[in-house]
Amino acid sequence: MTGIVDNSDAAGSEPANLRFLRVLVSVLTAVMILGIVTIVGLMIWKFSGDTAPALPEIITLPDGTVPVAVTYGAAWYAVVTAQDEILIFDKATGQLRQQINITVEAQ
């Protein structure tokens, strides 16, 4: 038998370090896939929520106002509205203290 090599015994067994590397690569691939799925899921969960800011329950906005941002101070809440106003409420009573109109200059 010249030129024919029988590798049937060698194909069934592989070195231990090669087997370890195969398992390690498989585990790392699974962890990376799980991580990417988790990150995408968290992004979907975070950005699919309500877009309006959470207002304190004590505050009642005037009819037709849409809140854009809320800022908390020591004794007050400030609500920026879509109508270019800043409404400042008392933290203890929830009463409207001040209303500031925002003027936007054309550029």
Secondary-structure blueprint:
Blueprint: H1 8-12, H2 16-47, E1 67-72, E2 76-81, E3 85-90, E4 96-101
Antiparallel strand pairs: 1-2, 2-3, 3-4
Shape estimate: rod-shaped
The biggest sheet, with number of strands, parallel, antiparallel or mixed sense and barrel status, is: 4 strands, antiparallel
What is the H-and-E element order?
Answer: HHEEEE
Determine the N-to-C terminus distance: 90 Å
Q: Quaternary status of these chains?
A: single chain
Mean pLDDT: 85
**Which percent band covers the strand fraction?**
15-25%
Give a description of the structure.
The chain has helices at 8-12, 16-47; strands at residues 67-72, 76-81, 85-90, 96-101. β1 (67-72) and β2 (76-81) form a beta hairpin. The model has no long low-confidence stretch (mean pLDDT 85). Strands 1-2-3-4 form a four-stranded antiparallel β-sheet, with no helix packed on it. With 107 residues, the protein is α+β, with helices and mostly antiparallel strands. It has two helices and four strands, in the order ααββββ.
Descriptive tags:
107 residues, alpha+beta, four-stranded antiparallel sheet, 35% helix
Summarize the structure.
The chain is of the alpha+beta class.
